[in-house]
């Protein structure tokens, strides 16, 4: 890695299997909103147990994987296509969403990832797509039901074009109509509950992003998502988010342009886009530090300690810092800019957690040697002098709480 860091990162640009041995939650969670009161309680317990198992395994995997860059890409895209346990029907599905949708699609094209997210029950439930009914559909006419524009709007604003991506309210309404019928059928024992329901689909042709999409049921929606994936605004929006996350809170326009051009030229081939990110010169230059988010900090401490703490302890650390897995407060996902995580209370919590982790791990190491291994050339002389006079437990706590560790180079 030290001899060829770019090559080491490039070697990780394959789909991630992630944690193994986890069971899918099954149909109870999909049917939570229509079950009896007793069944709903059983479903909630099963969903909570599934979430706990998924989250514990995810934290332990991140702390031990030999492909940490790959795992960061998984978390970036999982956060980009945010689904959250703030929607109670998603509690048991969020881990499955990441394992079955995000991880296996990172070695393909963006359009395939986009389509996979759009068909998963977590996304359909989280953004209320299952509640959208075409006003002129059979169900809409019979029960006086109408469109729910939530998913259509977030699909353009947060997943593809961006808020300034050039779409109109008419496009939102058209996409919402096109996507009616994208729903779920829990069906006893079904592993894939997605269902296209013609009875709820708004019939007819629709004009979307200036193009006329002929009536075609499910395929009409697929065509709309393909248009979004290929749009120039999508390339710019994705490029901006990638550069902001991996390089700088204030992404340079030239870096954004390079990633966007790669996205367009390769038709959104994600390994190529990620490879271009690795080769951005500014990503290797000093002066562009990124504050570790709470999730990144917990993982970094866990890896630095040699995986001495179980996943459940790491989750307690994330809870203390206010960033539990798959629990973002809105569809925008978790912020990754320093301004979101640098309040006085946040800083105190970070220092406290560094102390707690060090005391629990009880590492028998030389803090200076650990600092050299973890920080390399970024290990300040003044920190070396300070750690030299401390016990292992004190020294590790001070190292983890230091600005040099709290901030990553990129």
3D architecture notes:
It is a single chain. The protein is mainly α. Among the domains are: 1-108; 232-284; 290-408, no CATH class. Helix content is 54%, strand content 4%. The protein contains 21 helices and six strands. It has helices at 5-10, 27-30, 37-64, 68-80, 94-102, 110-119, 121-126, 138-143, 150-159, 169-178, 218-230, 232-246, 253-265, 270-278, 294-304, 311-321, 344-361, 367-375, 381-388, 392-401, 403-406; strands at residues 182-184, 194-196, 206-208, 211-213, 290-291, 407-408. The strands form three sheets. It has a two-stranded antiparallel sheet with strand order 1-2. Strands 3-4 form a two-stranded antiparallel sheet. The chain has a two-stranded antiparallel sheet with strand order 5-6. Strand 3 and strand 4 (211-213) form a beta hairpin. Helix 15 runs antiparallel to helix 16 (311-321). It is globular and about 75 Å long. The two termini are 16 Å apart.
């Amino acid at each position: 890695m030290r001899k060829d860091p770019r090559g080491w990162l490039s070697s990780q640009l394959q789909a991630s299997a992630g944690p193994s041995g986890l069971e899918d939650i099954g149909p109870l969670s999909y049917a939570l909103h229509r079950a009896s009161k007793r069944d709903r309680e059983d479903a909630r317990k099963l969903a909570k147990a599934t979430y706990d198992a998924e989250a514990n395994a995810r934290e332990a995997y991140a702390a031990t994987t030999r492909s940490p860059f790959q795992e960061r890409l998984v978390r970036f895209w999982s956060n980009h296509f945010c689904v959250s346990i703030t929607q109670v029907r998603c509690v048991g599905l969020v881990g499955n969403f990441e394992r079955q949708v995000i991880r296996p699609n990172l070695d393909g094209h963006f359009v395939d990832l986009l389509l996979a997210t759009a068909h998963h029950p977590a996304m359909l439930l989280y953004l209320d797509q299952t509640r959208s009914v075409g006003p002129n559909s059979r169900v809409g006419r019979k029960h006086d039901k109408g469109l729910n524009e939530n998913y259509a709007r977030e699909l353009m604003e947060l997943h593809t074009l961006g808020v300034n991506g050039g779409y109109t309210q008419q496009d939102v309404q058209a996409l919402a109509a096109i996507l009616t019928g994208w729903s779920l059928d829990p069906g006893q024992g079904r592993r894939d509950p997605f269902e296209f329901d013609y009875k709820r689909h708004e019939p007819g042709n629709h004009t979307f992003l200036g193009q006329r999409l002929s009536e075609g049921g499910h395929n009409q929606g697929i065509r709309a998502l393909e248009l979004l994936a290929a749009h120039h605004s999508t390339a710019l929006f994705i490029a901006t988010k990638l550069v902001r996350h991996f390089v700088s809170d204030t992404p340079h326009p030239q870096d954004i342009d390079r990633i966007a051009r790669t996205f367009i030229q390769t038709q959104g081939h994600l390994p190529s886009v990620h490879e271009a990110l690795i080769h951005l010169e500014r990503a290797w230059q000093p002066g562009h530090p990124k504050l570790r988010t709470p999730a990144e900090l917990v993982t970094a401490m866990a890896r630095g300690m040699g995986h001495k703490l179980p996943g459940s302890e790491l989750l307690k650390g994330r809870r203390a810092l206010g960033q539990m897995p798959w629990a973002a407060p809105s569809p925008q996902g978790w912020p990754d800019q320093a301004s979101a995580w640098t309040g006085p209370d946040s800083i105190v919590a970070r220092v406290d957690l560094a102390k707690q982790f060090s005391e629990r791990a009880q590492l028998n190491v030389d803090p200076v040697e650990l600092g050299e291994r973890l920080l390399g050339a970024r290990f300040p002389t003044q920190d070396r002098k300070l750690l030299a006079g401390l016990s292992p437990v004190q020294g590790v706590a001070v190292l983890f709480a230091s600005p040099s560790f709290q901030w990553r180079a990129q």
